Structure to design on (120 residues):
């Protein structure tokens, strides 16, 4: 039976620029980087997590670049992570917001994709 979600795809127009963002600013590590047609298959590991991300845009999905990512990255302390990531140059749409269910902040990657960073 299914045991986990292995990875999620993040569409990009420039794999090198995306790779630099996710490794240098976000601190993810390269698990796989190999040719795949006109692109590369780039899998990144998130420290301490089983689920990774893939920097790859399937043919016909180019219109997904620069949109909202339907998921959330989790951390122990959103405000602390916000300060660390902002200091590394990650663009946030605003400061962390507190809600009854937890705290979250929105950030953008090098392609303008928008993501949620939230408490567990």
């Amino acid at each position: 039976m299914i045991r986990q979600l292995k990875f999620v795809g993040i569409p990009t127009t420039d794999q090198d620029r995306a790779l630099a963002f996710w490794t240098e600013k976000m601190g993810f590590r390269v698990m796989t980087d190999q040719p795949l047609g006109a692109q590369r298959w780039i899998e990144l590991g998130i420290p301490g997590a089983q689920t990774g991300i893939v920097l790859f845009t399937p043919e016909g999905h180019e219109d997904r670049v620069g949109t909202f990512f339907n998921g959330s990255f989790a951390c122990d302390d959103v405000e602390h992570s916000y300060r660390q990531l902002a200091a590394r140059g990650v663009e946030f749409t605003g400061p962390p917001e507190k809600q009854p269910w937890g705290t979250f902040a929105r950030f953008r990657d090098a392609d303008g994709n928008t993501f949620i960073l939230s408490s567990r």
User: Anything to note?
Assistant: Residues 39 and 104 are 33 Å apart (CA to CA).
